Amino acid sequence: MNQNLRVLVFDETPLIGAVLKDTLEPEGHVVLHTADAPSALDRLQEMSFDLLLLDAGAAAETQAEIARATRARRADAGVVLLCAGDLEQAEGLQLRLGAERVVRKPLDPQVVREIVAAWRHAATEPIPSSPRIVVVDDDLMVLESVIDVLQEHYEVRSTRSPLDALRLLGEGPHEILLTDLLMYEMDGMELIRWARTIRPSLLAVVMTGYGTKESAIAAVREGAYEFLEKPLTPALLLQTVGRAWRSLRNELENRRLVTELERANEQLRREMAERRRVETELLQSQKLEAVGQLAAGIAHEINTPLQFIGDNTRFVRDSLDQLLSLLDDALGRRSESDDAETRRLAARIKEVGLSFLRKEIPAALKENLEGVKRLDGIVQAMREFAHPGAAEMTDLDLNRALNTMVTVSRSEWKYVADMVLDLEADLPPVPALPGEINQAILNLLINAAHAIREVVRDSGERGTITIRTRRAGDSVVLEIADTGCGIPEAIRDRVFEPFFTTKAVGQGTGQGLAIAHSVVVRKHAGQLTFTSDEGQGTTFRVALPLRPHADEGDG
Questions:
Q1: Does 132-232 carry CATH code 3.40.50.2300?
Q2: Which of 71, 119, 321, 467 has a Cα at 20 to 30 A from 340?
Q3: β-pair partners for 47
Q4: What pTM, to 2 d.p., does this model score?
Q5: Do the domains 394-545 and 132-232 match in fold?
Q6: pLDDT digits (tens, 9 = 90+) for 359-377
């Protein structure tokens, strides 16, 4: 079977989804995390999942509904309970839902890998050649007589307790349940309902003695395959079980074929999505290459006049100092006499406002030079951004790259937000593809600016973009936090999907975050996660390993 699994995670803790995605997605598995039951059920309408990781603290009705829906789409789907509270209570829930195991929070990535490996091994079992049967009857004589008839032909497990029957069903796959209708712990129909939560494909046969025939018929109408009246005859018992097994085997074979078709379609969808992603990144890189060439050309053209403007301005500033000094000397000598020429010169000085010019001209020249310096910074940033960068991993000064991208993106944020830089000094260089990382940072900055722009449009108040860097163990961590509109919970699972955007047509392509995720996770073996509060803002966190990845440079 296909080794790539589809895993549905229902848990209200965002960190749980992040841990599972970081652990399983690099191995090729698909992980969908949701804390919203309607969203989970909607996704289960769209596709089947191989494994369900279910919050043991969720409402009991929600747990049962999601487990049933998961197994209705895929009968042999595995269920694992994630427990943060009472382990004994979770084990009781495990019995009712037929979950494979209970796992303590916080999750250990190695335990997660073991769960997936165990489920994959169990799921490769073929359809059995004969049914495995559980027989439940609180009448010992009836129970023993049924076992005597069936065990010569089938694998049979038996119990007098309905609760014990649920335990047996949860321990391994079974195909047929024979149950008495009237029992002390729970009646046969309640047992069947719980059993179907564990094994949706289970065929149930009701045995009735003291119950009425009408109640047995009602049981069939509610989902039992057939009913048998006590006392049972061996021939009728074997005939009924054989007929039930033939019907179930045909259904299981059909489901197997449907599952294989679903998997083939899913694989095709993933391959098409990957092809679209590659094509989009290629197109984006081609556009960026063209923009980069244009930017490099513009930067070069601007740089030449900028140099002589700066040089000439500095020459005028220095020459002005000398002229003013010479003028002071001349005026000093003239002031010693009181002739008509001196009086005319004094009037002229007053007329042109020499004292004002002596104060303002140097200030204007200083301001010009500051402007030239700023322009030079922009030009250098454009040239760095336009540079194609190394084709292989090279040491990158992340703080310098951030300053460059802040300058390049200034037009996106300067009217709506203040920029705060909290960059750790002596940050070690990061093994990276500079051009790719620059693009990822730029996309995150533009995303932050656009999120704040929506708030500014409504409230008129400027926002703040805060950029932080620090070393964390064997990684360098970059955080870009904004005070924007936040990401709605309903779409948080999809923000890194290619072509997904909440912007109006023509205002967004849905590629910015997808490309950033691809650059960080795929090409640099890093992590890109986020936390968000609606109406408060979002923080994107990039973690880049300091040691080069084994596949560095592959893309």
A1: yes
A2: 321
A3: none
A4: 0.40
A5: no
A6: 777 777 777 777 766 666 6
